[in-house]
Every structure is written in C-alpha cells, then in structure tokens.
Amino acid sequence: MVLLLVALAVAVTAFAVSRRNPADAAGGWRWFAGWAGAGTLLSFSVLTGFTIGMFLAPLVLGALWTVAGRARLWPEGLGLFAGVATTCLLVAVLALPYRPCPPSGSGSLATGSLATGSSSCGGFDPFAWAVAGVALALASGFAYAFAHKSRRGVSPV
Q: What is the pTM of this model?
C-alpha cells in the first residue's frame, strides 16, 4: 500500500506538471510552503501506512495535484523535503515522554516507600527524529534560498 501511494504520488505530480504551461507556473516562498504542505501529508501518510495513511491518500494526491499544477517544480519543489522535516519533528514531539526501561526489565522502589502510584517506561528515543527533522528543514530552506536567489540572478552570498 505504501509503495502504491508513493508511485501514485509520483504519477499524479508528473501528470499535473505536464499539463500546465511552464510560463504560468508560480514561484516564491508561498509555493515552497505549498510543496512543504504536500510533503507533510505525503510523508505522514507513508509513515502511518495501513492505519490512517490509506484514508489520507486522496487528500495527499489532491494536494500534490493542486501544487504541481500551479507551482514550479524547481526550486519550490524543495519544499517537499521541508514537509518530510515537519513530519519528523512531529514524531519527535510525540515521543518526548520517552523513558527508557531499566536494563533488567524490572524497576525497584526505595526501601520504605509506598507503591501507591504507577510507573511506566518504554517508547523510543526522539533524538534521531529531531535531528533528522532539523537537518532536513535547514537543508531544504537553505537550498531553496540559494536556488531562488541564483535563479533571479542575485548572488546568494
């Protein structure tokens, strides 16, 4: 299902780009954000796969059709990576309550303490997701700024 969604996303984007007149394609930060929104939907749908991802598929394809039909593919299409960054950062934020379990698999209470509360451990460390999200966001933002200024003939440095 996930591979089918990615294949459909590529096909819809290619078809929408081929149908529009290149002279009519819009550009700018607004369309970079549009590509980022489509990238967020696509990556979230792929990540959630068989749970809610398949129900998001029509929304993903509609967003890609709309953005690809109206915006330039280069350099605004770099926004797709910013969208993946958004999904990575969302996963990192949702995993913040992560508490590693003790190595033995069981915890111990201090002598004389009452076991009135409950304790839980587990989850996954959000650090890798946060690093990937920040790296993708910075890379896509700087790459777009550089490409956008180079396209206009302005020195990016």
A: 0.81
